[in-house]
Design brief:
Blueprint (H helix, E strand, L loop, with lengths): L6 E8 L5 E9 L37 E4 L8 E4 L29 H22 L1 H14 L9 H16 L4 H10 L1 H11 L2 H12 L4 H11 L6 H8 L4 H27 L7 H25 L1 H7 L3 H19 L1 H6 L1 H25 L4 H12 L3 H11 L7 H24 L1 H20 L8
Antiparallel strand pairs: 1-2, 3-4
Helix pairs in contact: 1-12, 2-12, 2-17, 3-10, 3-12, 3-16, 5-9, 6-7, 6-14, 7-9, 7-17, 8-9, 8-15, 8-17, 9-10, 9-15, 10-11, 12-16, 12-17, 14-15, 14-17, 16-17
């Protein structure tokens, strides 16, 4: 930079139109060639006159252009940087080069992707509402089937079979093969206890009610088939509402469903063999087709394509809920007259079976010293059966359509009873849930503050 001679130098600013006007004049000491300039001092200001400093002020951030300004009196031109402008003049003090640059075009938002995501979220929320009202749809379907059987009698038997298979496929999509090994590793005792209660308490109660409830033979066989079924998928929803142990509930349902391939035909043959002929081999093959294969297919799909399954799984519970309601309606419509004739006795036997299962599951778990959360889970898993599976097996392997009626009535009964029980437990265990949450926070805080190992200095 070229400096003017001794005296004063006038700092000037050039406007956009090329006009120049003086800003201020500061005295300047003579500077020897090659020496550093001394900071200029204005009159009346106390400064360190011995400290060297820059002659010109620092440019404001964002401006890097030097402009050639001519002095007003026709003096020599000097390369002077444009001084920083105050905020109130920011709109008028733009760099000269900025006027030649056109602003970048605005980026259009990704409207189609956003709208698709929003639509998917709304659909998932609607499906969640449908799933939460599961007892309502089942009761409405049962009432419609008894009032107007023709609303469901047009549905063929293959629809019932494939509907249950799709329901089991949706259940399989919620888990992976590694989940079974994980639960066996973390809580093998609880899982085995739950399966033991499932296939001992309910079959024992089924034997009592099928023999001593005063039901005709087809309905008694239906009670036996119902008691031999695994835990129902609706039990997972009820366990969630009742503040149960969700991981144990889901894996108990899955494990008992897989065990049903062998247990359900064997128990049905033992309980109902003296009441009606039982095709144990046919029951085994049907259970494998509508339970084992769809569940395993869902697990494999979740293992191989987790991203796709995660999106699809948001809607499968609602589809399963509507399919179960349609299966219940179709089963009841096939024998609506006989069900209405034996309604009070049949309803009493089915309700007594489920109520006894809820009670014994809770009491046995409590006597073993298990926590309240685990006791509630055991009660729900023992008391609620996969009545849809029972209805399909009864319709496929027994000649009298009345055999499937107890399973259809069970779908309504255990859903209503389980939902009422879950509502009661949810209200009465709020303090327990809060105390458990505070205990976990205290444990995490203790481990974070003083529970770790001392670090080396």
């Amino acid at each position: 930079m070229q400096l003017l001679g001794a005296g004063s130098v006038t700092l000037q600013r050039c406007s956009a139109k090329g006009l120049a006007r003086p800003m201020h004049t500061l005295p300047l000491r003579p500077v020897a060639p090659g020496a550093l300039p001394v900071r200029p001092t204005a009159p009346g200001l106390l400064t360190n006159r011995g400290a060297p400093g820059p002659l010109l002020p620092r440019r404001a951030a964002g401006s890097g252009h030097l402009q050639q300004c001519r002095a007003s009196g026709g003096g020599a031109a000097s390369a002077v940087p444009e001084p920083a402008q105050p905020d109130n003049h920011a709109s008028s003090a733009q760099p000269a080069s900025s006027s030649s640059q056109s602003p970048a075009p605005p980026v259009a938002p990704a409207a189609p992707a956003a709208s698709a995501s929003s639509f998917e979220d709304r659909a998932a929320a609607l499906c969640g509402t449908i799933t939460s009202l599961f007892p309502l749809w089942v009761v409405m379907a049962a009432a419609l089937a008894l009032w107007r059987p023709e609303a469901f009698t047009w549905l063929p038997t293959p629809f019932i079979t494939w509907g249950l298979a799709l329901t089991m496929l949706g259940m399989g999509l919620t888990m992976r093969l590694a989940d079974f090994a994980d639960v066996f590793r973390r809580m093998p005792g609880l899982l085995l206890l739950g399966m033991g209660l499932q296939y001992t308490v309910m079959p024992g109660l089924g034997w009592l009610f099928s023999r001593y409830a005063g039901l005709p033979a087809p309905l008694a066989v239906g009670i036996a088939v119902l008691s031999a079924c695994p835990g129902g998928t609706a039990s997972n929803i009820v366990a969630f509402l009742a503040r149960g142990e969700m991981a144990l509930s889901i894996l108990m349902t899955a494990a008992s469903t897989l065990a049903a391939v062998v247990a359900t035909p064997a128990i049905t043959a033992a309980l109902a063999g003296t009441l009606a002929p039982v095709d144990a081999k046919g029951l085994f093959m049907s259970t494998m087709q509508v339970v084992l294969l769809p569940v395993m297919a869902g697990c494999v799909a979740n293992q191989q394509f987790p991203a796709v399954v995660a999106r699809v799984a948001r809607f499968t519970p609602a589809v399963a809920t509507l399919l179960v309601a349609a299966i219940v309606g179709s089963t009841l419509a096939a024998s609506a007259g006989a069900v209405r004739a034996s309604g009070p006795a049949l309803l009493g036997a089915v309700a007594g079976l489920h109520a006894s299962g809820f009670l014994l599951g809770f009491v046995i778990a409590k006597c073993l010293g298990l926590s309240g959360k685990v006791c509630r889970t055991m009660s729900i898993e023992v008391g609620m059966q996969n009545s849809t599976l029972g209805a399909v097996l009864a319709a496929l392997h027994f000649a009298d359509p009345l055999t499937a009626a107890p399973c259809a009535v069970s779908a309504c009964t255990h859903s209503v009873m389980g939902s009422a029980l879950a509502a009661y437990w949810r209200r009465t265990t709020r303090d327990e849930e809060e105390a458990e949450g505070r205990g976990k926070e205290a444990a995490e805080g203790g481990s974070g503050v003083g529970g770790g190992k001392p670090q080396a200095a």
